[in-house]
Design goal:
By secondary structure, this protein is an all-alpha fold. The chain has one domain: Hypothetical protein af1432, CATH 1.10.3210. The chain contains eleven helices and no strands. Bound molecules: fe (iii) ion. Fe (iii) ion binds next to loops.
Amino acid sequence: MTDPRLSHIADLLTLKAEGNYGLSAINQRQHALQAALLAEQQGCPEALIVACLLHDIGHMVHNLGENPAEAGVDDEHERLGHEFLMTMFGPEVTEPVRLHVAAKRYLCATEADYFGRLSKDSVLSLSLQGGPMSAAEVAAFEALPEHAAAVRLRRFDEQAKVKGLATPDVAHFMAYVARRIRPAQGLPGAP
Ligand code: FE
């Protein structure tokens, strides 16, 4: 793997992802791999598999600790992750990442039984993130081109918390990342 951006992403997923995923008994890397695996098993487009793998990368690029929501802090990891990814990927990858917290607020507003199925840490962070969407926010969310992909990512996100589940390794999913990353700026073929 020669592109330093790919090595950096693989390093984050390999070395910076040992922290627990919220209050669950798995770490960030296992969570990322499980989310990507669910998308792969469902036959999702490569961009969404990449988005699932990298949706919580914002947690790995900040130093706010493992579960800042418990301390009443919204780490804005979806914004940090989006900022980190937008220099390297198109909106088909970055928008579902940016919107995956909004998708939770959306589903809380539009699906009667959704809130009741949220994990304890998702409930905790929901109030910090603004609670369920208003009707106007729901309409604005549905107008975004990638909103359906963000909702799919969100559902995989919630299922990707299974302790002890075997998954392919980081390298397996980095092959998708390598195919979806934009050419590096300054190199031939860069936009
Ligand atoms: Fe997640």
